[in-house]
Amino acid sequence: MGLFPDTLEILIKHFERLPGIGRRSAERCALYILEMPPKDVQGFSQALVNALQRIKPCQRCNNITDRQICSICEDSSRDHSLVCIVEEPKDVFALEKTGKFKGVYHVLLGTIDPLESKGPQSLHLRQLLNRIDKGEIKEVIIATDSDAQGEATAAYLADLFKDKGVLLTRIGLGVPMGADLELVDIFSLSKALENRKPFSPNNQ
Question: Looking at domain 6-54, which of 3.30.420.40, 3.40.50.300, 1.10.8.420, 1.10.287.110 is its CATH number?
């Protein structure tokens, strides 16, 4: 027989699925929930349901939003001719914390990963290609991770955009090889943006 009642054990297991939450932290979270006033627990559960129902990809850049267009894309003070390509919404948040980037983003919602049978068709590029073809974009910064999947994706994008008439750059020094953007410190990310360099399939 387990230490915790079955109902509580199920709750603990759900918390354990969250990134960065081990068994002890999951137990503490579950026990804390039991000590909360019922109305607070109901508010917490409703917030989860609302997030699942209302959060969706921005129709322009694929960042997460609860509207059709995210707040970054709607911001007229940002440079919409400068687009930074990232893998996931979490990378947008990491770069925004630097306070250095004044352009907009495009989120691929994945990478090329042959081991997982994920090719170029898994990348969400339609909106970005439409904007490039309309002449709205002058520079594209490729800010995929520096692991094997990120580098393969960057090489594909460089080849795809090479004849599109846009300046193509890659984030530079400051991001260690193999690192995920969300785990890199703000100072290093800032330097990576400042030190971006021209990029093509032949200079990776």
Answer: 1.10.8.420
